[in-house]
Fold this protein.
Amino acid sequence: MIVTTAQLFKHAYGKYAVGAYNINNAEQAMGLFKGAIESKAPFIIQISKGARSYTDKRMLEAIIRAAGEIFPEAIFAVHLDHGDEQTCYECIDSGFFSSVMIDASHESFDKNIEISKRVVDRAHAKGISVEAELGMLGGVEEDIKVEDGHATLTNPAEAAEFIKRTGCDSLACAIGTSHGAFKFKGRQSLHFDVLEKIKALVPGYPLVMHGSSSVPQDEVARINAAGGTIAGSMGVDVNEYLPAAKLGVTKINIDTDGRLVWTRVHREFFRDKPAEFDFRPPGKIFIVEYAKFIASRNVLLGSAGQLDDLRKSLGK
Ligand code: G3H
Ligand code: 13P
Ligand code: ZN
């Protein structure tokens, strides 16, 4: 059952965070739904602009529709990740997305508000939730690279004003994370102080954490032992997911970690079976491994085991 992110956040707020996982193909969709059902967790399936054009935007929508039929007990939102204004309108008009993200965080404060508010007005007219972003994460998104030192943490007073002026349903805040596999140099913690200040100004308001992959070091070691060269990578401490959730983070975005699972499975498979050329055997292993990964993340996010209670609270 497809629901809005606002419905998911109402149930999760202050107790747990909903995992938001990016997908690009059928294998990822299958692993995600399997893992979510095995862990009895609601989830958010995210599609980036790059994912929409990887094959064809209709392909991913059809895959998700089919997955919803294969796993009828699943409760999830279909969300556009890092949308520009035009892509938000396309997804709002598609009738398939229950949530969109307008990412105008690279614009000035006022321009960001102006663009986000336009998207909110169009989305709300169709009952669709909107996530906006304030502050700048470091790292690489599809078209935008934010260099080290140019990332800016979200200003709590501005966040409160932004929420009021745009009417957005959730706000992605920069609290020290970045996209990709190279988040920190040395040990670092999330900026819980920023979350505390935002929560004090807008109690009960759902916040979103992007760049939340943990970049498991055992995964990286296996990839490198099978020919990879991704040394020096580092991610978010998974023990900080739940404390962030208690401070109002209701959506935690994880993409890179899934790519690492894919890379590890395929590098090891073809290293160990150099004469193999059928893609289905490693594809099957990936689905199982990704499902295990999703279930393990849902436990850490506190969303595991919430499905039945959520269903009741939705009256379904
Ligand atoms: O934040 C970006 C997400 O990880 C999506 O990545 O734009 O390469 O699909 P992508
Ligand atoms: P990661 O690169 O840490 O997985 O972040 C993904 C993300 O924020 C998607 O919007
Ligand atoms: Zn992101």
